[in-house]
Design brief:
The structure holds two protein chains of two kinds.
Chain A (H helix, E strand, L loop, with lengths): L2 E10 L2 E11 L4 E5 L6 H9 L7 E8 L2 E2 L5 H7 L4 E4 L3 H4 L6 H11 L5 H14 L5 H4 L9 H13 L5 E5 L7 H18 L2 E6 L2 H7 L2 E6 L2 E7 H6 L4 H13 L7
Parallel strand pairs in A: 3-8, 3-9, 6-7, 7-8
Antiparallel strand pairs in A: 1-2, 1-4, 4-5, 9-10
Helix pairs in contact in A: 4-5, 4-7, 7-8
Chain B lengths: L3 E11 L11 E12 L4 E5 L6 H8 L7 E6 L2 E2 L8 H6 E4 L13 H11 L6 H11 L16 H13 L5 E5 L7 H18 L2 E6 L2 H7 L2 E6 L2 E7 H6 L4 H9 L5
Parallel strand pairs in B: 3-8, 3-9, 6-7, 7-8
Antiparallel strand pairs in B: 1-2, 1-4, 4-5, 9-10
Helix pairs in contact in B: 3-4, 3-5, 4-5, 5-6
Classes of the chains: A alpha/beta, B alpha/beta.
Chain lengths: 261, 258
């Protein structure tokens, strides 16, 4: 699906947290949004989904395959979330309901959108668990979130996001809470699933190395403004803005380099 | 003699009984770990979640007791109650992962940083020591009267480091000190850790799964898996030619810039 964001502005607590941000993700495109804390990257994703916190207001335009999402009624938006747009957040611990089995949560989007009967739900949950490469899907769907590791919980969250085969996947720091080997496995999973399903991807992160692994284009946010965008190689190789150059320099100073050791 | 020396540390945790008549299952968090840290050295302990890194740190600081084995700090055994370990608390400082959770929101920066001085009844001019610690971590004196919510993430982590070094410890331990920080702040904190090491001659033990941090600050690296040390050596050598499969997997997984 094509996502066109124009002049997105979010006002929150008397200040402008996102200030006229515009970008386009073509069908099947992979955009990484990067910025420090307070740059407005999370509010931008939440605004696209109509999930802004209480007291925040969004203006501008968010077009999903030509359909305006900003100002859409909650009932219609709810039909789009989960069905056409899948979301994965940072912390799989809080994103899952501790009182429901993994299988029930995996199949929930299908149930909510009327795509699976009660009888089909278990089979669908097993299918999704296998899709995100969880071990022993048949048994795993009967477990509760606390019985899984952090990486497995994030796989469940990704399975939920992909349940209805959405055309757009939004991921907000989905690997930040994970350790390095789990992060690599989850990124590989993302990469493969986005490739296979042909979904468009918006991936929010503060880690340039992670961004370079998963997306082809970059949007740099700073203090609520989009200050630079372009292909990953160009941004890393020849940043135009001082803020981008500082981000790249800091990433080079702190990330692991194989050639240096 | 090593500043810090651990011998054959074993730490078992008894799991809840499943069968009231059967023996309780035991999980081995550490299965025989020995480690020496020399004065002035920076040692990184790396490994996946569940490899035993944090258990090791708790034992090194006397925050938990080993099932068997021994820890010595400057030749003195680390055993006994919290009050009898006051000498160890005076000689060590710790920085935790999350500066949001580790600072009391109702205290000013000056009070937070002064806490170890009060708790450990450190003699001397506390105000002067706090001012010196704030200067060491690069915080403006004016920030002393602010509260944590008024600070940025990077400033908060500087406050946490200031609190860890205010009583002039000989050993600084960092448990994932950078993983909650964003990239520009990480670069600053990394510089700060290097500078403190050079200027104060601090011996440092860093627990991390962040190979970037390890590569840029550690002299020596210790790799843990399943409660054992599986590989150790000079950082550059281990990262250039890892021998153990676990080390290789960690290196392969590290995100890197093209």
């Amino acid at each position: 699906m094509t996502l066109v964001v124009r002049g997105l502005t979010v006002r929150f607590g008397g200040r402008t947290a996102v200030d006229g941000v515009s970008f386009t993700v073509p069908d099947g495109g992979r955009l990484g949004i990067i910025g420090g804390s307070g740059s407005g990257k999370s509010l931008t994703t939440l605004a696209i989904l109509g999930l802004l916190p209480e007291g925040a207001t969004a203006t501008g335009s968010v077009l999903l395959d030509g359909v305006e999402l900003l100002g859409m009624r909650e009932r219609e938006l709810a039909r789009i979330r989960g069905l056409r747009v899948g979301v994965v957040f940072q912390d799989p611990q809080t994103a899952l309901n501790p009182l429901r089995t993994v299988g029930r949560q995996l199949a929930e989007p299908l149930r909510l959108h009327g795509l699976a009967t009660r009888r089909q739900q278990r089979a669908e949950a097993v299918r999704l668990a296998a899709l995100v490469r969880l071990p022993d899907p048949e048994q795993l769907v009967d477990l509760y979130p606390h019985q899984l590791s952090g990486g497995q919980r994030q796989r469940v969250a990704i399975g939920i996001a992909l349940a209805c085969a959405p055309g757009l996947l939004l991921a907000d720091e989905p690997t930040t809470a994970l350790d390095v080997t789990t992060q690599a496995a989850i990124l590989a999973l993302f990469d493969g699933l986005v490739e296979d399903t042909g979904a468009s991807l918006v991936f929010v992160t503060h880690d340039l190395a992670v961004l370079a692994r998963i997306s082809t284009d970059v949007l740099v946010l700073s203090e609520g403004r989009a200050i630079e965008s372009g292909p990953v190689e160009r941004i890393l190789g020849a940043p135009q803005q001082p803020v981008t150059a500082a981000l790249v320099a800091a990433a080079r100073a702190t990330s692991f380099r194989a050639d240096e050791s | 003699m090593s500043l810090l020396s651990a011998r054959d540390l074993v730490r078992d945790h008894r799991l809840p009984r499943r069968n009231p008549f059967g023996a309780a299952e035991v999980r081995h968090a550490l299965r025989g770990v020995s480690l020496d840290v020399e004065t002035g050295e920076t040692v990184a302990v790396i490994g996946e979640s569940g490899s035993g890194k944090s258990t090791l740190v708790r034992l090194l600081l006397g925050l938990d007791s080993p099932t068997s084995g021994e820890v010595r700090f400057d030749g003195r055994p680390v055993t006994g109650s919290d009050t009898s370990l006051r000498w160890l608390r005076r000689a060590t400082g710790i920085v935790f992962q999350d500066p949001y959770a580790s600072l009391d929101p109702r205290m000013t920066v000056a009070r937070i940083v002064a806490e170890p001085l009060r708790a450990l009844a450190v003699p001397g001019d506390h105000d002067a020591l706090v001012a010196a610690a704030l200067a060491d971590v690069g915080l403006e004196p004016a920030l002393a009267l602010r509260y944590p919510h008024e600070l940025s993430g990077g400033q908060r982590q500087r406050v946490a480091i200031g609190r860890a070094i205010v009583h002039r410890p000989r050993l600084l331990i960092g448990d994932e000190p950078m993983s909650a920080l964003d990239v520009t702040v990480r670069a600053q904190i990394l510089d700060l850790l290097r500078r403190l090491h050079d200027e104060l001659g601090l011996t440092t033990v860093l627990v991390s799964h962040d190979l970037g941090l390890v590569q840029h600050v550690a002299d020596r690296v210790v790799v843990m898996a399943d409660g054992l040390i599986v590989e150790e050596g000079p950082t550059a050598a281990v990262l250039a030619a890892p021998r153990h499969p676990v080390t290789r997997a960690l290196l392969a997984a590290a995100p890197r810039l093209p």
